[in-house]
Amino acid sequence: QCEGFFKALQKNKALTSLDFSGNFILAEGAGFVGDCLKTNKNLASLNLSGNMIGKGVTSIAEALKSNTTLK
Question: What's the CA gap between 37 and 69, in Å, rounded?
Answer without folding.
Answer: 9
